[in-house]
């Protein structure tokens, strides 16, 4: 009887958390929309270039952080739903992670575009502080994606749970993703090297593209292996 | 390597998920081993054999 009361109490707590998660999701959506509006305004309004670039950098940072927080929220929400169903499917953790790295890497394309433009300006000796910021920020998402792929740990989605060692299959997928990423990075670097021989600033401007190709390849390979494992 | 995991599992009347739960691995691990996408370590192979109450040689065999 006491156990039943405990279970009901726990379910009520989880339900309350789910409602809070929904509110947090709406807030994150508003934040992302605000950042996008700021980005559009920075391009459309006749504002000084410095202000426009600051607004753009701010938008990119906010969008990146929103993306990270969204996936954290999504994971916690899924974990709470599983707790309500009193079931836990460890396969879901891996699929969620695979989708997460693909979305992060795809999102990195935006950063890459601004990073390459900024790197081009810097290579031509026309870069200002904001260009330096954009060039450095463009490394953020590839770094996050590669960090996730290289990690030997798996983030648990239960609130407050510590990270757990990744299982053998996950490590196998990650190794394969890293191998593909390495090959893609080498191929991209060769392309950038040749482009640099023709026009030197291209070697600098192409580096954000190399990092993004490397991260995107790793993410897509990991996701594809996960899809393959889910079937059958 | 010859993999007979699927045959032994179905003979035992277990689904992939049931075997995964017994062995403490993910269903994807069982699925990828059965489809020869993933070659498990000795530890996982022995765990699966134990979960199926079968000798390791009944599940995996080296081909000539």
From TrEMBL, chain B:
Keyword annotations from UniProtKB, A to Z: DNA-binding
Source lineage: Bacteria, Pseudomonadati, Pseudomonadota, Alphaproteobacteria, Caulobacterales
Domain of life: Bacteria
Name of the protein this chain belongs to: Helix-turn-helix transcriptional regulator
Entry annotated with the keyword Transmembrane helix: no
Organism whose genome encodes this protein: Brevundimonas nasdae
Keyword DNA-binding: yes
Pfam families found in the cross-reference section: HTH_3
Domain HTH cro/C1-type per the UniProt entry, residue ranges: 5-59
């Amino acid at each position: 009887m006491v156990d039943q009361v405990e279970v009901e109490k726990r379910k009520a707590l989880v339900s309350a958390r789910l409602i809070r998660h929904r509110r947090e999701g709406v807030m994150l959506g508003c934040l992302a929309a605000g950042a996008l509006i700021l980005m559009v305004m920075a391009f459309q309004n006749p504002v000084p270039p410095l202000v426009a670039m600051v607004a753009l950098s701010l938008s990119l940072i906010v969008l990146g952080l929103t993306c990270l927080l969204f996936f954290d929220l999504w994971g916690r929400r899924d974990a709470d739903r599983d707790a309500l169903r009193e079931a836990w499917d460890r396969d879901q953790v891996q699929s969620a992670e695979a989708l997460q790295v693909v979305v992060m890497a795809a999102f990195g394309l935006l950063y890459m575009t601004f990073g390459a433009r900024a790197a081009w300006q810097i290579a031509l000796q026309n870069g200002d502080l904001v260009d330096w910021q954009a060039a450095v920020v463009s490394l953020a998402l590839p770094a996050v994606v590669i960090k996730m792929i290289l990690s030997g740990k798996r983030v648990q989605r239960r609130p407050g749970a510590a990270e757990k060692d990744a299982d053998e299959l996950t490590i196998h997928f990650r190794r394969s993703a890293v191998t593909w990423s390495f090959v893609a990075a080498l191929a991209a670097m060769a392309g950038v090297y040749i482009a640099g021989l023709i026009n030197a600033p291209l070697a600098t401007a192409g580096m954000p593209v190399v990092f993004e190709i490397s991260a995107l390849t790793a993410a897509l390979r990991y996701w594809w292996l996960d899809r393959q494992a889910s079937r059958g | 390597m010859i993999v007979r995991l699927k045959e032994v599992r179905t003979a035992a009347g277990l689904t992939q998920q049931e075997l995964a739960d017994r062995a403490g691995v993910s269903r994807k691990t069982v699925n990828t081993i059965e489809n020869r996408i993933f070659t498990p370590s000795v530890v996982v192979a022995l765990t699966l054999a134990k979960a199926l109450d079968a000798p390791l040689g009944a599940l995996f065999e080296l081909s000539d």
